């Protein structure tokens, strides 16, 4: 006889959904931290992490950017397409989504830095490295990167592949 309604209890579906969000936020937070470390390595003249700590405003901007990134990741994870009928562990530990997030991380970092270099060269009267003179300017720079990265991750999480 055919069953009417869901084959999986509702509470288990909600628990799987929350678990997926928690895992994806943890992974994306780690990638954001790696992204800041990569910015330090790829733009050695800026010293992002050191300069941000010199100003409470820059620190606040960094934290705000991080919260926006996490909000975008939570929204992306909550609204992401998911395979119905998979096992609870397969639902939470979706390696296809993780791979897409990892690729998006690498691409966003490379594209972001390449565009930064190109725009810097195309606008010689705007010296981009002047941001190193003020920790608040560095905080705004990293704030923008975190939002950029959050949008990239959101797109990766909601792509219907």
Description:
- The chain is an all-alpha fold and 161 residues long.
- It has one domain (28-158).
- It is built from 6 helices and no strands.
- It has helices at residues 10-42, 48-52, 56-79, 88-92, 95-122, 135-158.
Please write out the topology.
Blueprint: H1 10-42, H2 48-52, H3 56-79, H4 88-92, H5 95-122, H6 135-158
The class by helix and strand makeup works out as mainly alpha
Give the CA-based shape. Answer: elongated
Profile the largest sheet. none
The H-and-E topology, N to C, reads as HHHHHH
Gap between N and C termini: 34 Å
Question: How many helical stretches?
Answer: 6
Low-confidence stretches: none
**Which percent range describes the beta-strand content?**
under 5%
The proportion of residues forming helix, as a percent range, comes to: over 70%
Mean pLDDT: 83
Radius of gyration: 19 Å
Quick one: how many beta strands? 0
Tally the structural domains. 1
Keywords:
161 residues; mainly alpha; 6 helices; 74% helix
A few lines on this structure:
The chain has 161 residues and is mainly alpha-helical. 74% of the residues lie in helices and 0% in strands.
